Structure formats: structure tokens, C-alpha cells
Amino acid sequence: DKVKKVEDNFRGGKLSLINLDTNEVKVLTTGEGTGSVGNIRWATNNRIIFSTYPTGKAGEVISNFALWSMNIDGSKKKKLAESQAGAGGYVSYSVTGLLPEDKNHIIMKINDRRPKVNDYYKVNILTGKRILIARGPDVDRESWLAGEIEDSQGRPQAVVVNFEDKWRIYRYLENSNQWELHHENTCQEPSFFPMAVSGTKWIVSGQNTYETDVFNTKNDKNKLYLYDPAEKSFELLYEDPKYDVGGLTGGCRPSYASAIFDDKNNELLGLTYLTEKVTEIFFDQELEQQYALLKSQFPDALVRPSSWDKDKKRIIFSVSSSTNPGDVYYFDREKSQILYLWGVSPWIDRGKLSPMDTIKFVARDGLEINGYLTLPLNQEGPFPLIKHPHGGPNVRDAYGYDDYVQFLASRGYAVLQINFRGSTGYGANHYMLGNWQWGKTMQDDISDAVMWAIDQGYADPNRVGIFGASYGGYATMAGLTFTPDLYAAGINLVGVVDQGLLLEQFGTRGSSRSNGWYHEGRIEWGNNETEEGKKYIAESSPSNFIDNITAPVFVIHGSQDRTVPIEQARVLKDLLEAKNKEYEWLIEPYEGHGFTGELAVKNMFIEVERFLAKHL
Q1: For the chain, what is the domain count?
Q2: Which residues contact 530 (CB under 8 A, 6 or more apart)?
Q3: Predicted model pTM
Q4: In what order do the strands lie in the sheet with 78-83?
Q5: CA 187, CA 326: separation in Å to the nearest integer?
Q6: How confident is the model over 208-242, as pLDDT tens digits?
Q7: What is the pairing mode between strands 553-558 and 583-588?
Q8: Which residues contact 455 (CB under 8 A, 6 or more apart)?
Q9: pLDDT tens readout for residues 481-501
Q10: What is the sign of the dihedral through the CA atoms of 288, 293, 297 and 300?
Q11: Sheet harboring 201-206: ordered strands across?
């Protein structure tokens, strides 16, 4: 047994100003204590706004998030807001708008009056004084905030909240300073979510809910629309026949595209969405032209503009790939110059990283499944294989740099990731095929992927392991219990073993987010309030089939996990001991749902490497 008690090194950060003409670097401020600095933006040409936030242990009470303004010479630093833990949750804040005609003020949203919604204020960046301009909508106490959009001045236009299995859009009526319930849908129904404001209309992602209220083969993909809230009418902007554009809004836990957003005037200039790799679309012709030029210089990488001047002649952009965790560059169009600024994780030897390839195969029932395969560099197969199922499960794996994948590949393992049914990104129907299929057809997809890798000659059938976190931890235990002949070892990181217990924990925890997860769970992975649901949960919970396990299990969990509580790991440990099964045990008292502390992460990888080397 390993229960690590380490005072971890949570590294702080600092805010520096780089003069791109002289390459002079000046440190303006550092995070308070072990804190970091982030969310940096220009308020004016001479004053910046930034946040400081702690990077403490998962179990700590954190109360020193803060928003600051400061001159670019480091003078006249002023705290504008501070986040504190209270009875209803954390006080949070963000800047929603700059005021070009009033350079001493910004618009902010803060939830210090009611924890579930934000109020909007005009804030003086020199004095911190604020004036209320709009209250947030009245919502149920068990709701949680899912999204908001503001106009070019940073004033509210719409708010999206979740309550039980419902998603509600509230529209702000500025003439009366009132909110109306504009739209409501139930989880797994066609819906739309606002992403940005365009004049008097909204750019939304989802389905035209006034054409249909059910999913079918024609409308199950998310599309982009220009939506008129006054007329409740949709105008199609963009669609992809195979992939969701703008995330999945018809799900129980909606996801969004990664927006390319001009925070100077709250304008959506473009977005990226996940396909086999990543696809970019633009609404701003100037930025699209600049992007095409930059992409031509890095044709095999993911290129993303992140900041620009008002004429878009000077751009900060990032470049990444499966073998590049990220580089940041400066582009000056007038000088035809691209200047390298810095790299992410410079301590990594990129020459030892393995490229990620896209793959697809057909599952046993005819469903096409997409995924990714990463092979050890400069070696010949067949390889020992790690099946690495993603968490969620209502998320998806994506192309790009992945610490876990590269760690495993660098140790000689092929790594297989797939977007099994129940994953998002491929339309609502692919996602809803996962309803009540934990341990069943979802697990069949994982098994079929392993058999595909064996048949293709990539994997040694006698040296296959499975290693996943959260839902991936569940899939690990399902693989070891339902298909024990397939795997020689398994690693369960913060995973679920008893679905009924998890539903009980969500239902009694009392937070609004847990309330939403409870209702999501009853739809997606079992209803513990019906006989049919109880039967399904009993049939699909690995905790009921520990007798079947023949391979060694490594159980890893964080004591502070509030998503999949540590009780899941303890239940599993007790059962493994009672059945005399081979297992190892690593608990981090200061970690939660996934490890973040540098020493904890390092220790976990050391132990994972040792365990896999022993058994594969």
C-alpha cells in the first residue's frame, strides 16, 4: 500500500512585459505566495488587467483569487475584486467589456450578491469603485450557471442555467431591466446555446428547435446559426455533415467550441471545432487571411491566433501538434516577420515524442468508430498495448499533445484511444447510443478496438493493458471484470466501480452541480429509482463481478475527489482483498479528481511505469 503524504511543489507564476523591439523582459508582478498570474488583458495602451490565483493543495480552502489593474511600468496596482469562499460557494468575477470611450472604466460580472448568478457592474480601474448596471436573473437555488453572452459593451444579453434535467435560456430586456425565460429544453432534446452577440442577434450553436423537437439523421449534428431572439428565427451560418460544430448542446452536459474571440468588443471572429484533428472557421475576413498565411508556414501543426492589435497587423499565435506541447510566436505583417517568443514545457525533449495517427474501424454491430493510435518511436511492432479510454463519458478524445500518451509511448507502449459510443462530437445520436450502455455496447467498442489493434499487427495479444481515469477508470474495471481474457493488467485512476453508490452520492451531496449530475446519470447510466434501472446498475457495476478478475489491478485515487469520491476506491480495495485478488494501491491525501501537484504527478508516473514494466 502506498499512501503518499508530501508537501507538494505548487509552482507560482509571474507577469512579465516583453518589448518586442528590444527583447527586453521586465517582471511586473508575481502571484501572491504560491499563486500564479493569468487572465491578462489590456485595459488601455498603458494599463493592464490580470488575475492572481492560488495553486494550493486540493483539500485547502482557497480564498485569495483576485483581479487587479496596473500600469505597464508596474505602478498604481489596484485590487478590483476578490474571490472568497462563502456558505453558498465561491465569489467569482470576470471582465466582460472594455469601454473605448471611457478608458477609466470596465464592465464586470460578479456573483457576490447571489452565488448562482452574476450581476453586472461598471468598475473604475483606478479606484475599484463599482456601480450596479444590471442584476442577474432570478433562478432556482439548485440551478447552476452554464454560460452567458454580452454585447459589445459587456452588458448582459443572455444567461444559460441548468436545473435538474432542464436547460434554460434567460434573455435580458434592457428597456425594462428585466429577464424573461426565453427557451427551455430537457436533456437530450434538440436545443441551442448562445455563443456571442452580433448586433441585435445571437450567434448560437445547436439545432433549429422551431423546426423539430426530436433528433434525426438530418439534424443530430450541432450547427452554427444567426438567431433572432425577437423573432425566434434561425439563419444557418455553417454546418459539418459529420461533426458537431460548437460542441454538443443537446446533451446533459453541453460542450462548446473553442471560440476565437475579440475581447475588445466581444466579437466572435471565428472558432475551432474537433474533427479527426481540428477545423477552423472564421467570420472575420482579415483574420482569416492572416491565419491562412500563418498556416502555410506551419502546415502540419495546429495554429491558433490568440491576440492581435486593432488592425490585425500584429498577431500573437500558438503552434502545437501531437509532438509539440506548444510554441508561441509573434507575427508582424508589415515587416513580414515571425518571431519565436517561448515554448510550453521546454524541459521536454521533443525528439523523443511520438506522432499520433488517426484511425477508424467498424464495431461488431456496424457502427464506425474513430480514434487515435500512438506508437513507440523508431521501434517495430507488435507492441505491448495500453488501451486508454477517456473520461466523461460524454466528452471525446482529440488530436494533440497528451502527457499521458507520450509518457506511455516513450516507455515502449502503443497507446490506443477511441471515441466509443456515448462520446460527443459526432452528433447526438452517437452520444445517445451510450444511454444505459456502460459495460455493454460502450465496452464492446473498447474490446473491438483492442481486437482491431491485434489484427492489424500493432498489439501483442499477450501484453495488453487498460489504463483510464474517471469514466476511463470505470472502463478499466469493466474490461478486467467483463472481458478478463483480454487484459494482462489494469490501472484504475479515480474511477467508478459502483454506479448505484455514485448516484446516491450525487443525490445527497447538496450542490447544484451534483444535482445536475444526478439527473444526467439517471438518463445516461442508470436510474436507481426504478426496478429496471436498479437491474441495469447491478448488471453493469464492476463491483459485482470482482470474482472474474484475473489480472493485477493498480488503484489510484485522491482523497479530496469530489466528483468520484474516495469511497469508490475503498469499496474496490475491500472487494479485491476479500476475493484475494492481486492489486496495488496509491492514495494522495492532497489530490482530487486527477492529480495536479508536481510531486504527486511525478510519483504517480514513476509507480505506473514500474507497475506496467512488471506486468506487461
Answers
A1: 2
A2: none
A3: 0.91
A4: 36-42, 47-53, 65-71, 78-83
A5: 36
A6: 887 766 776 677 889 999 999 999 999 999 999 99
A7: parallel
A8: none
A9: 999 999 999 999 999 999 999
A10: positive
A11: 192-198, 201-206, 223-228, 233-238
How do residues 525-561 score in pLDDT, each as one tens digit?
Answer: 888 889 999 999 999 999 999 999 999 999 999 999 9
Question: Which phi and psi (to 5°) does residue 412 adopt?
Answer: 100, 10
Position 4 scores a pLDDT of 41
Q: Burial of 386 by CB count in 10 Å (0-12 exposed, 13-18 middle, 19+ buried)?
A: buried
* Range 86-102 average pLDDT: 77
Q: What is the DSSP string of 277-339?
A: SEEEEES-HHHHHHHHHHHHHSTTSEEEEEEE-TTSSEEEEEEEETTEEEEEEEEETTTTEEE
Q: Identify the DSSP state of 138.
A: P
Handedness of CA 475, 478, 483, 485 (dihedral sign): positive
List, in order, residues 6 or more apart from 218 with CB less than 8 Å away. Answer: none
The pLDDT tens digits of the residues spanning 426-435 come to 998 999 999 9
SS3 state at 70: strand
Contact, 521 vs 478, CB < 8 A? no
Domain CATH for 61: 2.130.10.120
- d(CA 384, CA 23) in angstroms, rounded, equals 47
Reference 403, options 299, 337, 323, 469; nearest CA is 323
Surface-to-core class of residue 154, CB atoms within 10 Å of its CB (0-12 exposed, 13-18 middle, 19+ buried): buried
Tell me which H or E stretch contains 535. helix 531-540
Extract the C-alpha cell encoding 594. 486527477
Phi, psi of 154 (to 5 degrees): 90, 10
The label of the residue with cell 508516473 reads 605
Please tell me the total number of residues recorded for the chain in this structure. 616
608 in a structural domain: yes
Q: Which of 134, 156, 179 is the last residue of a domain?
A: 134
Residue (of 484, 494, 497) closest to 562 by Cα position: 494
Q: How far apart are alpha carbons 13 and 611 in whole angstroms? A: 34
Q: What does the DSSP 8-state code read for residue 550?
A: -
Amino acid, res. 303? V
Bridge partner residues of 178 (DSSP): 173
Residue 376, in any domain of the structure: yes
**Grid coordinates representing 122?**
461598471
Domain boundary among 134, 159, 187: 134
* Full residue range of the structural domain in which residue 98 is found: 9-134
The pLDDT tens digits of the residues spanning 98-155 come to 988 899 999 999 988 887 889 999 999 999 999 999 999 988 877 778 889 999 899 9
C-alpha cell at 85: 469562499
Identify the burial level of 223 via C-beta atoms within 10 angstroms of its C-beta, where 0-12 means exposed, 13-18 middle and 19 or more buried. Answer: buried
Q: What is the CATH number of the domain that holds 374?
A: 3.40.50.1820
Nearest to 100 by CA among 42, 17, 150: 42
